[in-house]
Amino acid sequence: MKGLAILGATGSIGLSTLDVVARNPGRFAVRALTAGRNWQRLLEQCRQFRPAVAVLLDPAAAAQLEAAVRAEGLAVEVQAGAEALAAAGARPDVDYVMAAIVGAAGLLPTLAAARAGKRILLANKEAVVMAGNLLLEALAASGGELLPIDSEHNALFQCLPPGRDRDSDGAGVTRLLLTASGGPFLDTPLAALEEVTPAQACAHPNWEMGRKISVDSATMMNKGLEIIEACRLFGVPVARVGVVVHPESIIHSLVEYRDGSMLAQLGNPDMRTPIAHALAWPERMPSGVEPLDLAARGSLNFRPADPARFPCLALAMQAAAGDAGAPVVLNAANEVAVAAFLAGRVRFTAIAAIIDAVLAQYTDSAPADLESILALDAHSRDAAEEKIRTLAL
Ligand code: NAD
Ligand code: MG
After folding, report:
1. Distance in Å, CA 256 to ligand 1 centroid
2. In the CATH hierarchy, which fold is given to the domain comprising 2-148?
């Protein structure tokens, strides 16, 4: 039995993870579940999975969970706050940590788990974009390991030669090719993008995800963050990472080799496949995902990404080519801009403009440690808020 902690248990990835765990009884013991403030859903999960500890960031929500847990006589310790959250994945009875908090908020808990030598199942791409090198250094020092959950990076991991995921050059790899669905606005007339609503932006054609990543998919900043994630995780320069639009989301990414071979990983678009892969690795176990019926599919389509439609992609490439601070700035500005769009404060098309303005202010000064990364993140958030105030809806 492997002890499991899920950071972000009540979100889309958290739910899929628990679904996979429930399908494989006897393999995993859920020791810790954490969330932001959704205590009702966390209570349901406590009933079903009986973790040793349940942590909520929000103290008021934690008090409600605590009362409910007591009333039901569940043997679950309830904790609150950022410190308890970071401690959850570092517990001695935990072997595997699903890092599935959304945004920069996931960085410290993920880093704590990395320092404690755990197997990190990494969905929280923002943590890698901000501090990928720190995470990898912490894992190397502690003897922990990282398995990518993002479907593209999980696909790349599966298509790279075993054990060569940090030495792809020596293994004859020429390029990593990320597929992108193009999101809900792939064929929307450009002029109509000004008026799209948060509900439209969150209605992804292939994947059911949290609201932030859904908006990122609509702007294609998600692919931009994933380019940076691929550079960090697999140790390749941005020039060797490509993007192709593939609207069906059946091929999850490809590795191109020197001899002309391209290896791809395919499957139905369901995050339970990469989650089960990373939980069982190097074995394989059931995920609940139906096998792909290629004949029923008939065809798969590909096209280049249109830079006029997806300006966020170029901004991310620019940040990926810059120093280690540029992705921190990009990510912070994007988080603030997306939250403002979801709150109805700015238009969809303002997201790229806000990020562009904040990135333009950044004068290279690569942060050398965690404190300077967090300071740059905070400063960039302020700069993004300032830009938003100048943009009347
Ligand atoms: P979500 O919004 O559905 O869930 C987020 C989870 O994090 C929830 O449990 C929430 O309570 C918790 N949370 C939010 N803010 C928090 C905070 N400040 N402190 C502590 N906990 C907090 O998001 P999601 O779609 O599950 O995505 C999670 C991460 O996985 C993101 O980084 C996303 O980019 C990545 N990811 C998601 C998918 C997907 O299919 N959903 C695919 C690939 C990668
Ligand atoms: Mg992805």
Report:
1. 31
2. Rossmann fold (3.40.50)
What is 322-389's CATH number? Answer: 1.10.1740.10
Q: How far is the CA of 226 from the centre of ligand 1 (A)?
A: 15
Q: Give the domain ranges of the chain.
A: 2-148, 156-270, 322-389
On the 0-12 / 13-18 / 19+ scale of CB atoms within 10 A, 301 is: exposed
Produce one character per residue of 3-17: b if its CB has 16 or more CB atoms within 10 Å, e if not. Answer: bbbbbbbbbbbbbbb
Atom 14, ligand 1: residue with shortest CA distance: 36
Which ligand 1 atom is the nearest neighbour of the CA of 15? 26
Residues 6+ away with beta carbon under 8 Å from 299: none
pLDDT in tens, the chain (393 residues): 999 999 999 999 999 999 999 999 999 999 999 999 999 999 999 999 999 999 999 999 999 999 999 999 999 999 999 999 999 999 999 999 999 999 999 999 999 999 999 999 999 999 999 999 999 999 999 999 999 999 999 999 999 998 877 777 778 999 999 999 999 999 999 999 999 999 999 998 888 899 999 999 999 999 999 999 999 999 999 999 999 999 999 999 999 999 999 999 999 999 999 999 999 999 999 999 999 999 999 999 999 999 999 999 999 999 999 999 999 999 999 999 999 999 999 999 999 999 999 999 998 788 989 999 999 999 999 999 999 999 866
Ligand 1 lined by 154 (C-beta under 6 Å)? no
Cα separation, 303 vs 306, in Å, equals 9
Task: State the distance from the centre of ligand 1 to the C-alpha of 295, rounded, in angstroms.
Answer: 34
